[in-house]
Amino acid sequence: MTPQINPFIIFFASIITSNMVLSNFLGMCSFISVSNEFKTASGLGKAVTLVMVFTTVINYVVYQYIVLPLGLEYLRYVVFIIVIAASVQIIELAMDRFLPELHIKLGIFLPLITVNCAILGISLFMVIRNYNFWQSLLFGLGSGLGWWLAISTLAAIREKTGKSKIPQGLVGPGLTFIIIGLMALAFMGFSGIFVIQ
């Protein structure tokens, strides 16, 4: 049933209608914590997208050509987490070398991409839905872009509301959760266009 889904439908659905953070609520910790400033949130979104694409491709290859042939399906969680951790370390070293300012701003949240459940969720969805290589690649890319879109949008809205007069009871987490809820509703408005689950 899954192989007939066009990879581009999976790509667009993973950005909009099946957004990892707004539909599946995966990766909420760093999504909320780093969305105070647009530039930092966008930088984290790029890093998460990069990790999602790399880990999806590597996990697909490792799962299809090593784990399945050896009958080690019970180790897939461990294998996926090792690949994710290694990818995050490589990206963190590269950011420290080439983008030190962004590396400092992201602080602890950059290594915490390793435990971002959205990244592990993509690899698990890829296996559960029996995606082929191109479906997996575009699912990882679309999910990363969707996460980046969501965190950048939330950061832009939070920056704008930070300069506005807001009732005292809504300042802080209250307003943030209301914004996230409204964003999720807005993304759900497209749910009839693309369906991948």
What structural category arises from helix and sheet content?
Answer: mainly alpha
Total domain modules? 1
**Mean pLDDT, as a whole number?**
86
Weakly predicted, low-confidence segments: none
What is the share of helical residues? 55-70%
Give the SSE map.
Layout: H1 7-15, H2 28-33, H3 38-67, H4 76-98, H5 100-106, H6 117-128, H7 133-162, H8 173-188
Helix pairs in contact: 1-7, 3-4, 3-6, 3-7, 4-5, 4-6, 7-8
Describe this structure in words.
With 197 residues, the chain is mostly helical. It has one domain (2-188). It is 68% helix and 0% strand. Helix 4 (76-98) packs across helix 6 (117-128) and helix 7 (133-162) crosses helix 8 (173-188). The protein starts with 6 loop residues before the first helix and ends in a 9-residue tail after the last helix.
What is shown here, in short?
This protein has one domain. Helix content is 68%, strand content 0%. It contains 8 helices and no strands.
Tags for this entry?
197 residues
